Amino acid sequence: MNIKGIPTGNSKEDIKVREKIIMNFYQEWKRNNPSQRLYNFDLDDYINIRYISIVETVEHSSKNYLSTLAVLQLDCILKLAKKVRVVGTKQGDKNQNQFEKMIKMEYELVGIGKVSLVVGIKRTNKEKVQYCITVIKT
Fold first, then answer.
1. Helical axes 12-32 vs 51-61, angle rounded to 10°
2. What is the pLDDT of residue 61?
3. 107 and 80 in contact (C-beta within 8 Å)?
4. Which helix (H) or strand (E) holds 18?
5. Helix or strand or coil: residue 34?
């Protein structure tokens, strides 16, 4: 991925371009990872990529240049992020209805900063699903 092609501004056009970059990245990632999951060492379990992972990450990470760059380091983040705390779901957030809890995780990405990875625990089968990735503003 050529980071020179990623717009750094905050215009609607810049955000749309970043949305496409993230969407294309996930499509390629899923082709290269047919199991659609990676093992996280801290959780001692797999973190799965599902449709909600892509929807939430596109919506939130595309709004910030550094968050978009962070998404492009998905493998590293999924494997090495460390659990910070477990929280409940947001009341009234229909995208979180399928989860019983959310795990807040963090990972320090060189050149980008501290990244937040939110992982949902599904109510039905306890599967851990990547919910969103964003850079934590300091």
1. 150
2. 96
3. yes
4. helix 12-32
5. coil
Measured distance CA(8)–CA(65) in Å, rounded? 5
Residue type, 65: Y
How many angstroms from the chain centroid is the CA of residue 127?
A: 16
How would you list the strands of the sheet with 128-135, edge to edge? 37-40, 45-48, 128-135, 113-122, 99-109, 82-87
User: Tokens standing for 66?
Assistant: 């550094």
The DSSP line for 100-134 is EEEEEEEEEETTTEEEEEEEEEETTT--EEEEEEE
Helix, coil or strand: residue 64: coil
**Phi and psi angles of residue 61, each rounded to the nearest 5 degrees, phi first:** -75, -25
The pTM of the whole model exceeds 0.85: yes
CA-CA distance, 138 to 126, in Å (whole number)? Answer: 32
CA quadruple 101, 18, 66, 73: dihedral positive or negative?
positive
Residue 3 has pLDDT above 70, yes or no: no
For the CA atoms of 130, 25, 35, 133, the dihedral, rounded to the nearest 10 degrees, stands at: -10
